[in-house]
Amino acid sequence: MQTVSHSVYFVNFAQILSRNWRRQAVYYRSVVVCFPTYGNVMASSNRNESSFSSSARPGVPAAADARRSTGALLLFLAFVCCVLLGMLSIFATFLPVIHAHSHSSADCDHGGDGVAGGFWAKFPVTAAELFHSPALVVVWIFVFMTLVASLLFVRGLWRRPAAVAMHLGAILILGGSMWSSPRGHLAASVWVSKLPALATWIDGGRVPRGVMVVHEGVAESHVRLRDATRVELPFTVRLRDFRMEYYGPWELHAAVPVLGRAADGSAKVVIEDRRLDWQIGQPLNLPESHYTITPVAFLPHARLVWPDDVPADLLIMGPGVAITLPAQSGRRASFTLPAGEAGPGGYVNPLLPKAAATITIDRLINTADPHSPLAPSVDAEETFALLATLEFSDGPTRRLVFSPQSPREDRGVTYAVAIRRPQYVADPTSDLPAMDLKLTSPDLPGGTMRFGHFLDATGTFRGMPPMDVPMTDADVHAFLDDPDAPDIEGIRLFFVEPPVKGFFSDVEIIEDGQVVKRATIAVNRPLHHRGYHFYQMDWDKERHAYTVLGVVSDQGLWAVLAGFGLMLLGVFWRYWFSPTVGYFRRRDAGILPASGVEDDLASSSGQSHGAHNAGETPASRDDVAEGR
Amino acid sequence: MQFTFDVVHILIYVTIAFWLFSALPLGKWKRRYFFLGGLVMVAAFVFRWIDTSHAPLRSMFDVFLALGVVVAPLWWFCERFLGARMISHTAAAMVGVCVLLPAGLVFDAQPQTLPPALQSPLFVPHVAAYMLAYMILFLAGMTAARQLLAGRSDRAGPLEQLSHRMVCLGFPLLTLGLVLGAVWGKLCWGDYWNWDPKELWSLATWLAFTAYLHWRRWQGGRFAKTNAALVLAGVACVILTLLWVNVSRLFPGMHRYAG
Known about the structure:
The complex is a heterodimer.
Chain A: H1 2-17, H2 21-29, H3 42-45, H4 62-109, H5 127-132, H6 134-153, H7 155-158, H8 161-180, H9 182-194, E1 210-215, E2 219-225, E3 230-246, E4 251-261, E5 267-276, E6 284-285, E7 292-299, E8 302-305, E9 312-318, E10 321-326, E11 332-336, E12 356-366, H10 380-383, E13 384-392, E14 398-402, E15 408-410, E16 413-419, E17 423-426, E18 434-440, E19 448-455, E20 461-466, H11 473-481, E21 492-496, E22 500-511, E23 514-522, E24 527-529, E25 532-539, E26 546-553, H12 557-589, H13 618-627
Antiparallel strand pairs in A: 1-2, 1-26, 2-3, 3-22, 4-5, 4-21, 6-7, 7-18, 8-17, 9-10, 9-16, 11-12, 12-13, 13-14, 15-16, 18-19, 19-20, 22-23, 24-25, 25-26
Chain B: H1 7-21, H2 29-52, H3 60-81, H4 90-105, H5 123-150, H6 156-188, H7 197-219, H8 224-247
Helix pairs in contact in B: 1-2, 1-4, 2-3, 3-4, 3-5, 5-6, 5-8, 6-7, 6-8, 7-8
């Protein structure tokens, strides 16, 4: 039986493809198709509905048959379109995988790029490229024409407004998408350039998809497109403020070294990230150590400043000399060199005369970026240097660079740069926090020390020197000399930015010098103005000083949205609303039988299932059909 | 794969136990166990909602939990209005168990905050429409599979009709999910269609069921086995969309919130 059914299946296709419509139509007339029904008796009310036309009654003249066979052809074409597009969609998801694989295998096997994939090299790399390629344009037009043809030629469709709504919706969605695609934008601009009269309806200079970077307080009207060309908007966008919101406060984390196992089973140190639930004034134990930390103060918006705006001191030390010179350009100090000059082996000749020296600080240098001003930074130990002039009463004048890392010794005098400890001040414009911590341990001399923490703009976390420490200087220096200070028994503390809750750009639209609109753009809250949508895309991760807005014109959008609405309307009407209305209508008319269905099919095989078996199973219809 | 013992997980295990019991020959208690399991699932979902303080449709765990929640209500609807009483609820219970096992044993249940992109009034309708549609289509696929097992016996016809009704119930929700996703994409990313792998797979799913509906409109119940095969092909697309595209690292895309 099965083979017979399959042969019918293929013959059926063959008949359609050989345009043997008439024979098909005769065949179809005999097929009573099960209509989608809700409720147990709905099928019986739809007894006479055929697949594509409700006019399928015996005795219909041959002309009607031809029309119905057109419907059959279009249903077949619709089926083909769906299968084709579905397969292309699935194939498209594999394109990046295929390309990555073919490239890597080409590299391995042939060592050259020229052979890369061979066959696959001709294919587009991304799904978007595939669906915008010329070959697919043909497919899209085919799908579009099928939809249009079904609306034009299938009369059965027009008897169901819901079906019309669905298919009209699909047409609008496809047409609107074509019109809003990059090619559609190109076509619009070409048409407008050829026929300026069209500009009334079509704005030819619109942006299919672009990006706009706006700095705080700056008005911007240029949009950068994907191909790096710039388009000027007919108005300007000014960023008044950019804000961020977070879920909860900044998290305090500890990177704790613990003993773990490597892949080969040997022991190794693994750094575990532990989150510390902190509260001001609440001591908490550092994991895997004897230490207790107590947050003393927390500034959610903090800025780092140098004491007296001076980042460092130049310490001049030697026999009889102890000068602390604040590192400011123009500062100067005079001192007397120790008796005599140090010779080889540190020998000082006492007979040589004492010389006077004068040091003048010329310039402060940020070695990380010579062009940027010297800002308070916890990196100052590494990035700070100063240029000074040394004048001697008995010798040549020298210009020297001093930095914290390399103390200098010259004629018996040591010159060292000591970075001052920056302080935190509350600053509402900053989005970065600071915390003052007290560290307590029975192991520490004096039992307690205190230090602060600051998260700098790049998100790295640095420790600060102790603030008030009842320890000996040697202890403090031993602590500070640790390159990873303030590691505590190898534990590093750091802040973690809490998950971002939202980022907001307060913007205003300016036309002819007048502010015409003020709005806040956020994710999921775009701004629409004169045919353009503005989307919150990205932001300045370091200083929160600029925002990145996506700009998209709304060409074709309204057709697509209308199509969405029509399609939803049609689908729910057809599959939910109509059957429900039918159900209640029949219930009120008293046609609905008592629920005569069985609990389990297995227990009731061979029995009648109420309305279900009332001569309405497709199998019985097939019998009728084949019996003709 | 591991057992976790917090409230939600214990409720999941209890539900799995109930649903496994409901497959045993226990007379009228079979059905009661099935719907009791459904109630426990609702409790788990409500607890999860309170626990995460947003609608729990965020992670893969949430999604599978939601799929488990809708099994029993949807099966009740199918029994009441679509004539699904002709088959036993056992298969629905097994679908539920299959959905809850990964939620209970595999997926990470750590509550996550909603990133800005997910803070939208369309978040819940979009995901909920898909969860409902997927579960109805799973049930339809299961009915279609039963129909194939029934061969050419008397049961095949009603089963074919039942699976068609289930698809007709689920298809509008599938469309709704797709359209809401597109509208949301427009509001959030600026494009209603991004050619993202998950978008493409769910489009393929939608097209598979659209193809099925056209085919069935064309051929009716004549080729019952082909109809069943088409439903099962659509369900295969659903499973791949839900699992493979989300979990596999092959397809990087914008829908990778589940992580």
